[in-house]
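Subject: design request, 426 residues
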């Protein structure tokens, strides 16, 4: 049978035996009227009063949005949200839209228009967060989190901290470190300082067995994010969940914990799919924007881990149309020697290097499985340096994997990549 995997802004086909197991998002009915669904959620939020009541009497507002690496329907969310703020007396000139770039590059003017819609991008003050700009961030001091005495030195974007009304928007989906995206992550790491983000991604945090997809319990990455967001305060959040064809399946507005927890329950019903671990797993980087760089495509490798047997093979199709990723990450990849050497280096180093956490996650994936990569965006030589196996096509990769594991090898296909959370049944 022929299966389509999401790739770039389109798809890529792979022919697999009829006995292959296909893991897809569980069917979830889209919201019939998206605009009305968002408006209703703003009026009847979880855990707090309505947005118009919250906004009444406020002088100004800061709305945090995801950057281009997340397929958030920003314009659909922002139009009714902004209308609500205006009806409550907050003028256009008193609203700042802050892009939660974390340590990603700033979004260009054309990207902002694509993300927000040309009208919103033109009418409102839109600021790319800059984690490396000390003047853009204000200190919150030392913030303790967790039960073992951990703490972090925290600074957050001053436009957000100084706002009279603090709002975040975004997407709730599985996340390979923090358990789930959305909610608290828009603040930390989204609009945190570089120093804060480096602590958030420290080696011991990333290596923790509970810092994994679909898990919030005892997850130190989640705990730090939630604690920092609570310290910075969040008056209101509005997050959505999406179907396989990127339609809105749920709108979750209100207080940070109440709304996010409700969204997580919905995501679990959509994304958690039972499976028997297979010899070969074929997956995708989930298409644009998530597969635009090698950096982001590592999420597909990690997301497939629960579905593959130890010693199995993961085949990843990702366009990587923008190449490797940020400059620090590219430099680390170019100097990569082995996963053992890299792991020893990061745990012994006196400080954290920007983006090292993504390579750390890749090395964890390589400990369990061989990883083959089909892409047009980076060279075969680069992939080999990272201990990955380049393949020209998915058909070639599947043939090579079956030579390793035999023609009777079990095969699983995950067309939506890291948006699906495999739950192994042993």
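Subject: RE: design request

Done. Sequence follows.
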């Amino acid at each position: 049978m022929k299966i389509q995997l999401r790739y770039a802004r389109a798809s890529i086909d792979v022919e697999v035996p009829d006995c292959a197991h296909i893991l897809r998002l569980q069917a979830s009915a889209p919201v019939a009227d998206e605009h009305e669904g968002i408006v209703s959620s703003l009026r009847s939020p979880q855990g707090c009063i309505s947005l118009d009541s919250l906004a009444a009497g406020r002088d100004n507002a800061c709305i945090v949005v995801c950057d281009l690496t997340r397929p958030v329907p920003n314009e659909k969310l922002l139009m009714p949200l902004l209308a609500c703020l205006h009806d409550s007396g907050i003028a256009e000139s008193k609203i700042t839209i802050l892009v939660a770039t974390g340590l990603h590059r700033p979004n260009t003017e054309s990207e902002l228009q694509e993300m927000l819609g040309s009208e919103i991008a033109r009418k409102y003050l839109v600021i790319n967060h800059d984690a490396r700009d000390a003047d853009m961030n204000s200190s919150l001091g030392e913030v303790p989190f967790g039960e073992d005495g951990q703490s972090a030195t925290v600074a957050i974007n001053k436009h957000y901290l100084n706002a009279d009304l603090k709002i975040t928007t975004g997407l709730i989906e599985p996340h390979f470190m923090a358990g789930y995206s959305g909610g608290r992550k828009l603040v930390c790491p989204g609009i945190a300082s570089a120093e804060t983000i480096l602590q958030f991604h420290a080696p011991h945090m990333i290596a923790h067995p509970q810092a994994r997809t679909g898990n919030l319990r005892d997850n130190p990455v989640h705990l730090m994010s939630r604690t920092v967001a609570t310290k910075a305060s969040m008056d209101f959040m509005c997050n959505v969940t999406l179907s396989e064809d990127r339609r809105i399946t749920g709108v979750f507005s209100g207080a940070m914990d109440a709304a996010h927890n409700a969204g997580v329950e919905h995501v679990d019903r959509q994304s958690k799919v039972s499976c028997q671990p297979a010899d070969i797993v074929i997956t995708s980087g989930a298409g644009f924007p998530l597969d635009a760089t090698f950096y982001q495509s590592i999420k597909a490798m990690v997301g497939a881990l629960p579905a593959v047997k130890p010693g199995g093979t993961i085949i990843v199709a990702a366009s990587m149309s923008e190449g490797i990723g940020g400059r620090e990450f590219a430099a680390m990849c170019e100097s990569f020697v082995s996963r053992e050497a890299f792991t020893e280096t990061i745990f012994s180093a006196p400080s954290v290097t920007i983006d090292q956490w993504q390579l750390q996650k890749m090395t964890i994936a390589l400990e369990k499985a061989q990883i083959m990569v089909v892409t047009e965006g980076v060279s075969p030589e680069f992939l080999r340096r990272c201990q990955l196996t380049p393949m020209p096509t998915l058909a070639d990769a599947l043939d090579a994997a079956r030579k390793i594991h035999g023609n009777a090898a079990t095969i699983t296909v995950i067309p939506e990549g890291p948006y699906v959370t495999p739950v192994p049944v042993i």
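The radius of gyration is 21 Å.
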